[in-house]
Write a structure and sequence with these properties.
The complex is a heterodimer of chains A (280) and B (525).
Chain A (H helix, E strand, L loop, with lengths): L1 H16 L3 H22 L4 H15 L8 H34 L10 H42 L2 H23 L1 H6 L6 H14 L1 H12 L3 H9 L1 H7 L3 H36 L1
Helix pairs in contact in A: 1-12, 2-3, 2-4, 2-12, 4-5, 4-12, 5-6, 5-8, 6-9, 9-12, 10-12
Chain B lengths: L1 H24 L4 H27 L5 H17 L11 H27 L3 H15 L3 H17 L3 H14 L17 H11 L3 H20 L4 H18 L2 H17 L7 H16 L4 H14 L4 H16 L3 H14 L7 H14 L3 H14 L4 H16 L3 H21 L6 H15 L2 H14 L5 H15 L3 H14 L6 H10 L12
Helix pairs in contact in B: 2-3, 2-4, 3-4, 4-5, 4-6, 5-6, 6-7, 7-8, 8-9, 9-10, 10-11, 10-12, 11-12, 12-13, 12-14, 13-14, 14-15, 15-16, 16-17, 16-18, 17-18, 18-19, 19-20, 20-21, 21-22, 22-23, 23-24
Classes of the chains: A mainly alpha (280), B mainly alpha (525).
């Protein structure tokens, strides 16, 4: 146990210390789209922004949000949808790409022509894993809102209940995500199949569950206050400060969570490699 | 190298998608939506700027207020109202109207600030701009007109205000509301004209306006409308008829209103008003001989609908009826109920406080009466009760022979009126406060004080109906104190400003009797 912790810590520290732009670049692409969206949102009075970011929001929520400053109250929701779509669909290709670059120094085959084929093979299981994560998260949210939220509201006073609901929802969501983090890592292994990648990935997720959850929380820690501010204090930011502050806070959150996601995958890839070496 | 190539191809696809989005963004109503958003943004930031200034200083000076107009005017400068053509789709025309309303609203806010900064000329200019840009948009035109009426009234351009209100009645047919809780503001205009004349102490024109109001409501009822609008108009007509003392018509309209209300469940909210009107009609018919029956009906209205505004009115009417029949303790009891339970109802609370004070005094509780009278100008400024209460205290002391106390009360009354004027220098009540000061100086026998106060009124309140009396009184006292030039100036002012007054022949006679022009004291005019 003590040794496992030392290994997990070493993997996490090395992931953070050995940050490589080349490895982070696929996440930067996702981040770039998110920031572009927020930039457009800040200029929604222009035709270009209204035709792109505005049109996307209209597609989701109709014409009602396309007013100032109401738009910014809908923005956290729209931004989280964008994040989900980008990390699920673009991420299905970009996450294995980043992991392949992280694993390349440990896997000589990934330094040669096999790189592209293995990344290409990895996206279907990754996509399925990400969709499964989404489905589980949606199921959990439904269960949480119908069964637990009324209970929490009845047990705690206003602000405490709101904070408890937010924290409870977040902890379980991170735990569910931790189960599927190893699917793209396993999907990049030579000679793996879609089913095998999913099965082995989930098994690895269960095996290294506590360390993975730990990575998720530690790396996401700097982003969480911003997430909390934007999710619980939307009206406060819009009315007491300026509505545009919501977009700024969302941009900071997007940057921090993008780096955190990269670091989580980098640490998990190293932990998986260390665990394989140990088994061998 | 191949990885780099792959990334470049990815980048190209992203760029192609983005370019497609940019091309598509220019299509359809996107540009109109963007314009609407920009207008909303500018208006919101103008509001924010004003709120920030008002947080620092609740009553900013006129320079600051005029400075605050700039962000509102920017909306009109930076946002172009999209033109509408026959080819414009419904969606696009809705958006274009939204933009026009936002720009119009910004202009109205700029007008509001100009009016607050004592620059009605700028305000009226803004409002006229709104009227010009509104085209056929009745909503915007109505808003601009209502705003203009308010401004004209504030600046005592009463004739223009009434003329505009009359044209509004012609131009804007009343709109059927969704529920009985909403009512088209147009319906309130006829009674607003009546109130305006009453506030001006001009009972002749108030009565004529009341007749006009009745005629307007009957005209509206002559065309078919939704049951809610019909009921609302008829309810207003009944109020007019009650004020006119037209018992037979009132009874007939109440019966129609009751039938309407029973036929439609959405009109059940009218029940308190119907019951109150029935009680009032009953009072008009049998109140003189048998007040107890009417009092019982009024009390039942108050008991059955304690939260309705008609509950307070019913209690007030019961009290007035009992007072007329000299049943003072019972009347006092009802006045007490009104003042304790309906103190926030502006139409009945001030007179109820005043009448209660009078009865408390009659029944031997002067201290309580004095406290009530002292409190009226503080609690209900800009009411007739606030005008009468300070003088009532002085009159009471004079009545019981306490001349010194009476004089002291009159001096205190002058200070009260001066305080009320300072509280709101643009209030429509300031001419009446100044007239009360003239009366106070008259009670004190201070003829110079009277003349000073009349001069102040000549400077500030010319055109107000109360000025007729002020000028006549000023001329009389100036003549008595051998200031015939001053008297002549007052009378000439009268002829110039009130050519249609019934006193004109008398004034001309007085002028003819005055000795030839000398070099006496000048008036402020």
């Amino acid at each position: 146990m003590h040794r496992n912790f030392r290994v997990a810590r070493a993997c996490g520290v090395e992931a953070a210390r050995d940050f490589q732009w080349n490895e982070y670049a696929p996440f930067a692409w996702i981040l770039g789209v998110q920031l572009l969206f927020l930039l457009l949102v800040l200029n929604l009075g222009t035709t270009i922004a209204m035709g792109t970011a505005g049109a996307a929001v209209k597609l989701l929520q109709g014409d009602a949000p396309l007013h100032y400053p109401t738009f910014f109250l809908y923005l956290p929701n729209a931004a989280s949808w964008l994040e989900l779509v980008l990390y699920t669909f673009a991420g299905a290709y970009l996450i294995p790409l980043s992991i392949a670059r992280i694993q390349a120094p440990m896997d000589p085959d990934l330094q040669g022509p096999g790189f592209k084929a293995r990344v290409r093979r990895a996206w279907p299981p990754t996509l399925i894993a990400l969709l499964l994560t989404l489905a589980l998260l949606a199921g959990w949210q439904w269960l949480f809102n119908t069964a637990l939220v009324p209970l929490i509201r009845a047990s705690f006073p206003g602000l405490q209940a709101t904070a408890a609901i937010w924290a409870g929802s977040l902890v379980v969501s991170y735990c569910l995500s931790a189960l599927f983090i190893y699917v793209p890592i396993l999907a990049l292994q030579p000679g793996t199949s879609l089913v095998k990648a999913l099965r082995e990935g989930i098994r690895e997720g269960l095996k290294l569950f506590k360390w993975t959850v730990l990575y998720l929380f530690i790396f996401a820690l700097p982003a969480l206050p911003f997430l909390m501010a934007v999710q619980l204090g939307t009206s406060f930011l819009a009315t007491r400060m300026r509505p545009e502050m919501i977009a700024v806070v969302l941009a900071i959150y997007a940057i921090l969570i993008s780096v955190a996601t990269y670091l989580t995958y980098a640490a998990a890839a190293r932990l998986h490699w260390a665990s394989q070496v140990e088994e061998a | 190298m191949s990885r780099l190539g792959g990334t470049t191809r990815d980048s190209r696809s992203w760029l192609a998608l983005l370019a497609l989005a940019l091309v598509l963004s220019g299509c359809g109503d996107t540009s109109l939506r963007a314009t609407r958003y920009r207008a909303e943004q500018l208006l919101w930031h103008a509001d924010l700027e004003e709120s920030a200034v008002r947080l620092r200083d609740e009553n900013p000076d006129s320079t600051t207020l005029l400075g605050l107009r700039a962000p509102y005017l920017d909306v009109a400068k930076k946002v172009e109202i999209p033109p509408l053509s026959a080819a414009t789709s419904k969606e696009e025309s809705t958006l274009a109207i939204d933009v026009m309303r936002l720009v119009g609203n910004a202009n109205l806010q700029a007008a509001r600030l100009a009016v607050q900064a004592n620059r009605p000329d700028l305000g009226i200019e803004n409002m006229k701009r709104v009227q010009a840009m509104a085209g056929d948009d009745t909503l915007m035109l109505r808003r601009a007109d209502f705003f203009l009426v308010g401004t004209l009234r504030q600046y005592r351009r009463y004739e223009e205000a009434v003329a505009l209100m009359k044209t509004m009645l012609e131009r804007y047919p009343p709109i059927s509301p969704q529920s009985t809780h909403d009512e088209d503001a147009i319906l309130a205009i006829p009674e607003a004209i009546v109130r305006l004349y009453r506030d001006l102490n001009d009972s002749t024109r108030a009565n004529a306006a009341l007749d006009d109001a009745g005629a307007y409501y009957r005209r509206v009822l002559a065309t078919p409308h939704s049951p809610i609008l019909d009921a609302q108009v008829r309810a207003r007509l009944i109020r007019v008829e009650l004020e006119q003392g037209d018992w037979s018509r009132g009874l007939n309209d109440v019966a129609i209103l009751r039938r309407l209300a029973s036929a439609s469940p959405s009109l059940k909210d009218l029940e308190p008003e119907i019951r109150y009107s029935e009680a009032k009609l009953h009072m008009m018919h049998t109140g003189r001989e048998n007040p107890s029956e009417s009092v019982a009906l009024f009390e039942k209205v108050a008991k059955d609908f304690p939260k309705s505004p008609f509950a307070g009115r019913a209690l007030m009417d019961a009290a007035t009826l009992l007072e007329l029949h000299n049943r003072l303790p019972e009347a006092l009891n009802y006045y007490r109920q009104v003042t304790s339970s309906y103190g926030n109802q502006p139409d009945i609370a001030p007179p109820a406080f005043f009448r209660r004070a009078m009865l408390e005094d009659k029944l031997g509780n002067w201290e309580q009466a004095k406290n009530l009278l002292d409190g009226i100008p503080v609690r209900y400024p800009e009411t007739m009760a606030a005008l009468e209460a300070p003088i009532a205290i002085a009159n009471r002391y004079a009545r019981i022979g306490q001349a010194d106390a009476a004089k002291q009360a009159v001096r205190k009354a002058i200070l009260t009126y001066q305080g009320l004027i300072e509280q709101d220098t643009t209030s429509g009540y300031t001419p009446l406060y100044r007239w009360s000061i003239v009366r106070c100086y008259g009670l004190l026998g201070d003829q110079q004080g009277v003349l000073r106060a009349v001069d102040e009124m000549v400077r500030r309140d010319m055109g107000h109906p109360i000025m007729e009396q002020a000028l006549l009184q000023g001329a009389q006292i100036a003549h008595q104190t051998k200031q015939d030039d001053r008297a002549r100036a007052y009378l000439q002012n009268f002829l110039v400003n009130y050519p249609r007054s019934p006193f004109v022949p008398d004034v001309k006679k007085q002028l003819a009797r005055l000795p030839a022009r000398g070099t006496a004291t000048k008036t402020g005019s």
